[in-house]
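> forwarded from #structure-qc
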């Protein structure tokens, strides 16, 4: 399983998301894949997982099947995300 974080770093929510990612990695020793929705790969991934609001966290299985999605603020808890990472 993996978790992707869709967000724009230069936005009003950018700092909150970066803090969440840092805290998550520090507490769990796991990494979250960061997706820039404005990049070519990011735009494709947004269409694939129907991401239209930022920040959005998407949990997927190994074969890419959507397992869970958290949209907007407030961000989910680290424990919620850790169960999918």
């Amino acid at each position: 399983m993996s978790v992707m974080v869709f967000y724009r770093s230069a936005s009003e929510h950018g700092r909150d998301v970066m803090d969440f990612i840092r805290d998550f990695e520090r507490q769990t020793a796991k990494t979250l894949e960061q997706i820039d929705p404005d990049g070519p790969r990011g735009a494709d991934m947004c269409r694939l997982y129907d991401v239209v609001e930022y920040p959005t966290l998407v949990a997927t299985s190994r074969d890419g099947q959507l397992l869970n999605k958290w949209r907007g603020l407030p961000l989910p808890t680290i424990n919620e995300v850790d169960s999918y990472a």
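QC bot note: The chain has a mean pLDDT of 97. The longest strand covers residues 66-71.
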